[in-house]
């Protein structure tokens, strides 16, 4: 017998004793009820709980695999970003290095010029002493009477002042790193993740527009329109198929003209960081400059024998990059004033960087010091660092246009983005400074872009070869 109240087996004596008034059942009935309960438990565990837990286990296994994969990818991405960030820091210091070298050249040239002037004055004064001593010895009173003193001129002693900025650095441990050299400044900052997961600092808060728009359509008399370079905010110098270089505003009004001494027309034009116009003359193998406020044309650069100048770019540091050709061969030379500073022709393995062919090299320099060149003979845009090493080549593959990529004019903007014209496909490719494709820019009417420049407001001026029109494009917001 089983006592239901006490949930324990009892005997006959217990039934009339301590458990007298308790409910009691036969053991067989109780066992049968327990067996039914066990069967229900088995059924629920087998049919419901185990499958449910198996699902959870499968889910957790999947999450484990997913987390492992994602964190492995995160580790790889972290290493990629480490390389990218290190490259950015290297680029910053490369840019500072360019600024220092430019200042060094400028200061040395100024000091040398002062020194030459002082030496000439010393020679003049030494000669004056000898002449004056002869006056003291002369027996001709008239010679002494006609003597004129130059002492006042020599008393105006030239004051030499050599000024140059110092390298300034500031380190706030764990928070901020900054470096400054003249106008070149860079800042790396760390912020709390609670405020922002990623904090990108840049000098210009501009981003690519989803849809670029043409904000001005400028007619010109230059048909075909060959070259163009912006000057200021709303003007540009342009050339066509004659000797004249014209300065036009955004309304198409001609503000100024310069007549060159080229046999046909200038091969290219650019503007120095002092705002002076320069142009290349392939027949005379020269790059000429027109000084501000003067009509006189001066020869700035004469290229090496048998090398013909074609395209040019004036850098922010004051250098002039000139692409040139000798038959099918191509190279780029960097000049500071008249002095040759760098030849870009072969890579670190002594192999030619540029493909032989009939097309000339278009070029520009990015903010990080990379020289970007359009090698139409190879159908690529190539970037070369300050050491002459190839950083990357871009072949236009991401855009997947009908015709082969035909890179020509190049500009770089305030975000260090590279913008190159695709002549065959009438569009513009926009890349980041590491050669990663960002966007293909297409606007209605961009047919056969043959000239490209950026104004001070960051707007693109695209010159069309056949129509002679200029389209001003807003592509950043």
TrEMBL record:
Keywords: Coiled coil. GO terms for molecular function: ubiquitin protein ligase activity. Residues 28-84, 111-138 form a coiled coil. InterPro entries: 6-blade_b-propeller_TolB-like, TRIM45/56/19-like. It comes from the Eukaryota. The keyword Coiled coil applies. This is B box-type domain-containing protein. It comes from Magallana gigas (Pacific oyster).
């Amino acid at each position: 017998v089983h006592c239901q109240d006490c949930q324990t087996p009892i005997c006959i004596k217990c039934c009339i004793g301590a458990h007298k008034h308790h409910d009691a059942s036969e053991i067989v009935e109780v066992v049968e009820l327990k067996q039914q309960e066990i069967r229900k438990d088995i059924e629920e565990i087998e049919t419901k709980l185990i499958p449910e837990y198996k699902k959870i286990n499968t889910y957790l296994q999947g999450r484990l695999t997913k987390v492992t994969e994602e964190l492995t990818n995160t580790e790889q991405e972290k290493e990629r970003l480490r390389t990218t960030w290190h490259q950015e820091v290297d680029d910053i210091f490369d840019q500072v290095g360019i600024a220092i070298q430019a200042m060094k050249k400028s200061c040395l040239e100024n000091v040398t010029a002062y020194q030459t002037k002082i030496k000439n004055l010393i020679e003049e004064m030494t000669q004056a002493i000898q002449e004056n001593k002869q006056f003291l010895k002369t027996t001709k009173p008239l010679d002494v009477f006609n003597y004129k003193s130059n002492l006042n001129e020599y008393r105006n002693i030239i004051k030499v002042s050599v000024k140059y900025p110092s390298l300034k650095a500031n380190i706030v441990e764990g928070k901020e790193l900054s470096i400054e050299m003249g106008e070149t400044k860079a800042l790396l900052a760390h912020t709390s993740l609670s405020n922002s997961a990623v904090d990108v600092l840049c000098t210009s808060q501009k981003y690519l527009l989803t849809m670029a728009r043409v904000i001005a359509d400028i007619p010109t008399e230059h048909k075909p329109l060959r070259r163009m370079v912006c000057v200021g905010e709303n003007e540009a110098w342009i050339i066509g198929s004659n000797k004249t270089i014209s300065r036009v505003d955004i309304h198409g009004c001609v503000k100024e003209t310069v007549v060159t001494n080229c046999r046909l027309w200038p091969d290219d034009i650019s503007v120095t960081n002092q705002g002076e116009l320069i142009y290349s003359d392939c027949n005379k193998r020269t790059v000429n400059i027109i000084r501000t406020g003067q009509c006189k044309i001066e020869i700035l650069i004469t290229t090496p024998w048998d090398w013909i100048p074609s395209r040019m770019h004036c850098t922010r540091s004051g250098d002039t990059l000139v692409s040139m050709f000798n038959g099918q061969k191509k190279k780029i030379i960097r000049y500071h004033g008249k002095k040759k500073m760098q030849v870009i022709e072969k890579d670190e393995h002594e192999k030619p960087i540029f493909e032989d062919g009939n097309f000339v090299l278009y070029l520009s320099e990015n903010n990080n010091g990379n020289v970007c060149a359009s090698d139409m003979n190879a159908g690529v845009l190539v970037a070369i660092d300050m050491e002459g090493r190839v950083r990357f080549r871009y072949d236009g593959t991401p855009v997947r246009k009908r015709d082969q990529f035909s890179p020509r004019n190049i500009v770089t903007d305030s975000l260090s983005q590279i913008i190159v014209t695709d002549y065959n496909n009438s569009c513009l490719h926009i890349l980041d400074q590491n050669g990663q494709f960002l966007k293909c820019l297409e606007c209605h009417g961009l047919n056969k872009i043959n000239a490209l420049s950026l104004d001070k407001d960051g707007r693109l001026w695209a010159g069309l070869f056949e129509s002679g029109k200029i389209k001003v494009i807003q592509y950043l917001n």
